[in-house]
Structures are given as C-alpha cells and as structure tokens.
Amino acid sequence: MSEHPDAGNHAQALAEACGRALYARDRLCQALGIELLAIAPGSARLALQVRADMLQGLDLCHGGILFTLADAALAYASNSRDQACVTLGASIDYLAPARLGDRLEARASELARGGRTASYDVRVVDQHGQLLAVLRGRACRVRGAVCARPDAGRADIVGGPADSRAEEERG
User: Fold this and answer.
1) pLDDT tens digits, 85-113
2) Alpha-carbon span 98 to 133, nearest angstrom
3) Cα distance between residue 30 and residue 171, in whole Å
4) Phi, psi (5° rounding) for residue 13?
C-alpha cells in the first residue's frame, strides 16, 4: 500500500515544528550562537561561527565545541519525528582543526532506526567544505513528545511551561 501523498508534507511540517520548539528552549545552542539551518525527518543541519572564546591554548577551536555542535545536530535529527529522544552514546574523530572565524556546519543523518534506538552519522565541515570531524552516535527514545502537532496550534515540549500550566489546571 502506498503512502498518502500528503504524508511527506506532514512529516516535514512536523519536523520543522519540532525544530522550532527545541530551539526555543535550547539555551546552550542559543548561547553558543548555533543556528538551525534545516531539519527533516531523521536529519538536521546546524551552523556555528568560531569565536575567540571558543579557542583553546593553541589558538584552535576547542574539540568540545565541535563535539557540542555535532551532538546538537544529532539531537535535532533524532527529535524530528515528535518523539522525545536523548543521546545514548557518541564518539567523534577529529580530522582537521577549526580556527577563529571559521563557519562550521554539522550535518546529521539517520543511519538506522528501530525499537527505541536509532543510529546517526554527523559530519562537521568548515566554510570551504573541508571535513573537520565525524561523530557516530545513538539516540534512545524516552517518554513523551517533543511538540504538539502543528494542527493543534502550539509547539510545546513536554515538561515545558505550557505543559506545567496544563498539569496545574488538571491538579
């Protein structure tokens, strides 16, 4: 049986709503200046400009910044289907350094999904397309949703302010 013709559009709209809801509450990404460039079911692209406060003692971008960018891309990709997920584990290979002023982009893509877990590859490149790091990670689905359905008129993360108000009203 074939998929309904609007299923892809609905899945994309839901991924975008989840991305907006996550970013609205993602204080770390906001503080680091990480931008959500694109999101689709099972994939995400995030970007970051390397600032002086992100450099380590050798005047290179700290590896933790690259890891954080890659892990954030994994988080957005894994939460793009309105099922709350957390990173279960990840490893990273650093292939080349990033420097002050570089614009980094992390591109996360889902490799496999089944049961409660999914596997992702994240490639971090600079503004010239040079591959700087590769992260392989797994995410685990946890209880709850990321956001309300787009047709419900709101996009609240479970446990967020709107969810707390609803709980108070029921209590």
Assistant:
1) 999 999 999 999 999 999 999 999 999 99
2) 10
3) 33
4) -60, -40
Q: What is the pTM of this model?
A: 0.82
Residue that the structure tokens 């991305």 belong to: 19
Query: Using CB atoms within 10 A of its CB, is residue 135 exposed (0-12), middle (13-18) or buried (19+)?
Result: buried
User: Taking Cα atoms as reference points, which of 60, 56, 43 lies closest to residue 104?
Assistant: 60
Q: What is the DSSP letter of 55?
A: B
Distance CA 84, CA 89 (A): 16
> What residues are paired with 95 via a beta bridge?
none
* Angle made by CA atoms 148, 149, 150, in degrees to the nearest 5: 110
Fill in the amino acid letter for 80. Answer: S
Task: For residue 125, give the nearest of 138, 107, 142, 101 by alpha carbon.
Answer: 107
Cα–Cα distance for residue pair 130/99, rounded to 1 Å: 12
Dihedrals phi, psi of 2, to nearest 5 degrees: -85, 160
